[in-house]
Design a protein that fits this description.
The chain is an alpha+beta fold and about 240 residues long. It is built from nine helices and ten strands. The strands form three sheets. Strands 3-1-2-10 form a four-stranded mixed beta sheet, with no helix packed on it. The chain has a three-stranded antiparallel beta sheet with strand order 4-9-8, with no helix packed on it.
Length: about 240
């Protein structure tokens, strides 16, 4: 199961394979923020940063996250090679396998490959930045997206298969290891938490705490969706 999320100014006729989306009855949501069009599912990793006036750096926060992920991956590979005579030397070579994280033409990329969608919303009351990192996805779901007319220069005419990379493929456990996928995801979010603590004063709350705020200050989730919420399911 997947859904399509479009930026506020996105046009389905230019961004979607409409006959296929209609045939498979794929839910399409127009978000309240900008950004491009993404296909997401339960394997996507969702992160949202919002505030009133504080400044922050994408490179410092997410650059920090992916540097930590890279170091974890290198250490795992070295452990697997410890029984090798040239294990340490080979482990050092493996560092080149993990490309650096950069912000390129507003895209989050590892090397030449995009790793998720991101978007911003700014009002007089504050700002919000959210992203959906692609830990994993079904290749066939990318057929719901067309090649956009306006696209970053570094992408060129590459298809989604050639343009995207799964974080699981780069930072996930290796076949020789028994680490389960959920553990790898938890490690990713742990690195996000640590990186955010370096930039912000972080106070942890539970899901119940967050839902209590929605209930008390917004009148409940359904009232918010029916009223002030600017994200909408659209017909294509």
């Amino acid at each position: 199961m997947c859904i399509i999320i479009m930026g506020m100014g996105g046009k389905p006729s230019q961004l979607l394979n409409i006959p296929l989306v209609q045939k498979d009855d794929i839910t399409t949501i127009r978000c309240f923020s900008g950004g491009g069009t993404v296909v997401v599912d339960t394997s996507s990793l969702w992160i949202c940063v919002h505030g009133k006036s504080c400044k922050w750096s994408v490179d410092y926060v997410f650059g920090n996250v992916f540097e930590r992920c890279k170091l974890d991956a290198i250490q795992r590979k070295r452990r697997l090679l410890q029984q090798d005579y040239n294990g340490e030397k080979e482990g050092e070579k493996k560092e080149d396998m993990y490309p650096n994280f950069t912000l390129r033409e507003n895209d989050y990329v590892l090397g030449q490959h995009k790793i998720g969608g991101n978007a911003q919303a700014i009002t007089a009351q504050g700002w919000l930045h959210h992203t959906s990192f692609l830990w994993d996805y079904q290749q066939e779901n990318m057929a719901y997206l067309s090649l956009p007319q306006k696209r970053p220069e570094y992408r060129g005419d590459r298809t989604h298969d050639d343009f995207l990379v799964k974080l699981k493929k780069v930072y996930g456990s290796h076949e020789e290891e028994e680490e389960d996928e959920e553990s790898a995801k938890r490690a990713f979010f742990y690195h996000v938490k640590c990186a955010c603590q370096d930039s912000f004063d972080v106070k942890e709350v539970t899901v119940k705490d967050a839902l209590d705020v929605v209930e008390k200050e917004l009148g409940g989730m359904q009232a918010w969706l029916d009223g002030k919420c600017r994200a909408r399911i659209i017909e294509v």
